[in-house]
């Protein structure tokens, strides 16, 4: 898994890693609620403070993978992870300020 050096692989990994981060946050913080209920709670909370915090924590998974791949000299995969992280960041900002 950590030996591939491919931009597309990095993009796919970068799109899936925050979902894993959200699942970890869900089970740690909201164990008794379903995933759908957690997403509704986060989205409808006034000010979207918890959503921004939760998605930011989820992006830490990308930071972890980015560090692993860049330190392992897998720069193409690191670029894909970086692009995915930027896309997630822009989406988070758009959700926060346009809704």
From TrEMBL:
The keyword Transmembrane helix applies. The chain crosses the membrane at residues 7-28, 48-69, 81-98. Keywords: Membrane, Transmembrane, Transmembrane helix. It comes from the Bacteria. This is Uncharacterized protein.
């Amino acid at each position: 898994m950590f030996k591939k050096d491919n931009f597309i692989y990095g993009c796919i990994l970068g799109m899936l890693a925050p979902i894993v981060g959200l699942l970890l946050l869900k089970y740690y913080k909201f164990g008794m609620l379903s995933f759908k209920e957690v997403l509704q709670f986060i989205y409808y909370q006034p000010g979207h403070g918890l959503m921004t915090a939760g998605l930011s924590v989820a992006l830490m998974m990308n930071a972890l993978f980015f560090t692993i791949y860049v330190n392992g000299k897998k720069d193409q995969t690191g670029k894909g992870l970086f692009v995915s992280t930027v896309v997630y960041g822009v989406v988070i900002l758009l959700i926060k300020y346009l809704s």
